[in-house]
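Problem statement: downstream parser choked on a complex file, so we are re-checking the raw output for the Dihydroxyacetone run. The parser issue turned out to be on our end (a line-ending mismatch), but while we're here, posting the original submission so the record is complete.
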Amino acid sequence: MKDILTAPFMVEMIRTATNMYAHGWDERNGGNISLMLEENEVREYLDPEKALRTILTGFAAPELEGKYFLVTGTGKYFKNVQYAPEVNLGIVRLKDRGQQADLLWGYADGGQFTSEFPAHMMSHAARLKVNPENRVVMHCHPANLLAMTYVHDLDEKQFTRTLWQMCTECIVVFPEGVNVLPWMLCGTNEIGEATAEKMKTARLVVWSQHGIYGAGKDLDETFGLIETAEKAAEIYMKIAHLPRVNTITDDQMHLLEKRFGVKAREGWLD
Ligand code: 2HA
Ligand code: ZN
């Protein structure tokens, strides 16, 4: 067996968590990441028949039975992932219609996956139906997106249009826009179900007064989505209190659609 700490998926996960911490998106134990793995890539590094222990998930996700995930641990700090991956991360395989997970590696101090595991798994199931290539769900607390949920209308179309207007790239990077949930209690199946419902139509879901969820085919794409939305929110927070003299018009948005071969969410541009 090869050393799992050298696996490309592990190296990328550690770099991503470290980078997210460096961006200030993951204070203390804030944030969580789940990365779906293929059985053949896992087999090079561990024996999938050897479960260290079994963890109850508290929900059912039959579509994900047998799937492998590398997931950040509950209560763990992104800051520390690079120094002790085996304590702060774990690899699980779902079984029993997703109601249980076999721990195959990690959570070495007796821990378990993130408290947001329901939102992650339900979002994976929802995104896989839209795009079978989806592999990543990522949650974090970027300051400007969070700040924006205190001062901006939470209507999804209005929220998205403001973000699109803040940087030329936004409509190209997330043409489907962002969906927005009102404040809800985190760590519950209810917020998991609500997030997954919103994931049917967008890869970004804002949790008002809390943070954001992103989904994508790899860690880079997902990080980049959140990074772009957060940059737009930063610009909004710099200008929101000033008179708006200029903007990106809907006509200009249509030029971007044409130039980059993207289509904005139906009905969200004039
Ligand atoms: O504890 O971010 O939403 C990690 C979180 C919960
Ligand atoms: Zn959070």
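For whoever reads this later: The chain has two domains: 1-114, 116-264.
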